[in-house]
Write a structure and sequence with these properties.
Blueprint lengths: L2 H17 L2 H21 L2 H34 L2 H35 L6 H30 L4 E3 L6 E3 L2 H5 L2 H31 L5 H34 L1 H8 L5 E2 L3 E8 L4 E8 L2 H7 L5 E2 L2 H12 L8 H28 L8 H6 L5 H16 L4 E3 L3 E2 L10 H31 L6 H11 L4
């Protein structure tokens, strides 16, 4: 692997690992806020217990997410300084604002929430976790605006004096049509990720004969996963249509559609061969790709061959075709993993209705259900980023143009190995802490709650 490939691999490792914790933080913060508001309204002690429990999971996850997020932001200086130098005035504000939200808003109010039990008035204490939840959502919106610029560059102009890109409107950057479509899709995926974790813990504790409140937690997690899955599908349909408009090559690669087709089918499964990987066998659903891409069964979807010719004429000689097998299979694995997670959650709700005990095989499968939304989110980002290749920012900057000058293979390899080792340690720490929290009984009284909080203090 050359320097470019290693740097791309490094960025992929850092970004994918960081994003394992982002949707969990968003979802757990919103869940903790909802539970505390329910406790404030009903005074039911189970909501207080579950608020503290979910809050513990949030603190552990948030801490790891902040650390890995810092490394991800530094990547633009480490490996992609040429891109950062030219487009930093456009891209940089989103990273700066997101960092300030994470450190100064979310972290501050999370600390107030954590140490404010029985010290702040109940309404003020509940307000702190609401601010944290709102901050995580706002942070996601801001950082997605930066990524959406890579998918669909808007709100910039070239400075004739410096030759660098200059931000023309921050509002227009936030209002990028890709951002407005990707944001609800991201939140729906976050609901699935957090819901699956709560479902797994709650069902496992109920099966072990733990407190009844864990049954409430399991049902809440199941509803979050099932409803989040349905919303992910709906928002993903809209996002697919937007992407087709701004990046038609991405949708063509997702289907391995080489020829422009009217009433294009969707391949559930395909096998490719030869040097270009064109499919020679596929199982297809008629007209479905035209519906997904443009909302009409009779719509015409542009194929890879025609788009390659169009881009070569527009941008100059070269290949503008992404890694089609990666785009094809990551798109389907994203959909499949998400659908399976939602189906398992719906099965839990259906079989456990009216106080019934879900089937034992389902209960045994639920502890691994958090892996499914994590896989769906991962494959979704792999598709989003690799199917944009060879562009770093679509239509204006190629990946090779953004690489840091003077970067050596040894430097990239050393930092990649270092990041991988640190992330491996963080993964073990997070898993052990979550397992410890999951095994701990819910506090029954405020005095026991305070003692439990003190035990968790070193974790934060």
């Amino acid at each position: 692997m050359d320097v470019l490939d290693l740097t791309r691999l490094q960025f992929a490792v850092v970004t994918i690992y960081h994003y394992l914790f982002v949707p969990l933080s968003i979802s757990l913060a919103a869940t903790a806020a909802g539970l505390e508001l329910a406790w404030l309204r009903t005074r039911a002690d189970k909501y207080r217990q579950l608020t503290r429990f979910v809050g513990g999971l949030l603190i552990v996850t948030f801490a790891v997410g902040v650390v890995t997020g810092l490394v991800q932001e530094f990547q633009f200086g480490l490996g992609w300084s040429a891109f950062a130098r030219f487009y930093g005035d456009v891209f940089g504000p989103t990273l700066a604002i997101e960092g300030m939200l994470a450190f100064f808003l979310e972290a501050t109010f999370l600390a107030l929430w954590y140490f404010g039990w029985d010290r702040l008035p109940r309404a003020a204490h509940a307000a702190t976790i609401v601010v944290v939840a709102a901050g995580t959502v706002l942070s996601a919106f801001i950082i997605l605006a930066g990524n959406s610029f890579l998918q669909n560059p808007v709100a910039y102009a070239l400075d004739p004096a410096t030759g660098r890109a200059r931000l023309s409107s921050f509002t227009a950057l936030l209002g990028n049509e890709v951002n407005l479509a990707a944001f609800p899709h991201t939140l729906a995926g976050a609901a699935m990720a957090g819901g699956a974790l709560l479902l797994a813990i709650g069902a496992w504790r109920v099966r072990a004969g733990a407190e009844a409140a864990f049954g409430t937690l399991a049902r809440l997690g199941a509803w979050m996963t099932a409803v989040g899955g349905a919303l992910t599908a709906l928002t993903g349909d809209h996002l697919g249509k937007v992407i087709t408009g701004v990046q038609p090559m991405k949708m063509a690669a997702a289907e391995a559609l080489y020829s422009t087709t009217t009433g294009a089918p969707f391949s559930v499964f395909a096998l490719g061969g030869g040097g270009d990987g064109r499919p020679f066998f596929s199982i297809e659903v008629p007209y479905l790709l035209s519906i997904l891409a443009k909302g009409s069964p009779g719509a015409t979807v542009s194929g890879i061959d025609d788009l390659q010719a169009q881009y070569a004429a527009q941008f100059g000689p070269g290949s503008y075709v992404p890694m089609v097998p990666v785009a094809f299979w990551s798109f389907r694995l994203m959909i499949g993993a998400g659908m399976l997670a939602a189906a398992l959650a719906a099965a839990y709700l259906w079989t456990g209705r009216r106080g019934r005990t879900p089937h034992r095989l389902l209960l045994r499968a639920l502890p691994v259900i958090p892996l499914l939304p994590a896989a769906a989110n991962t494959f979704g980002w792999i598709f989003t980023e690799t199917a944009r290749q060879p562009w770093l920012a679509f239509g204006i900057s190629k990946v090779a143009d953004g690489l840091s000058p003077g970067l050596t293979r040894a430097e990239v390899l050393a930092s990649l190995l270092g990041f991988t080792a640190v992330y491996g340690v963080l993964a073990v720490v997070w898993l052990r802490l979550v397992r410890r929290l999951a095994r701990r009984p819910l506090d029954a009284t405020p005095a026991q709650a305070d003692a439990s909080a003190l035990e968790l203090a070193p974790v934060y």
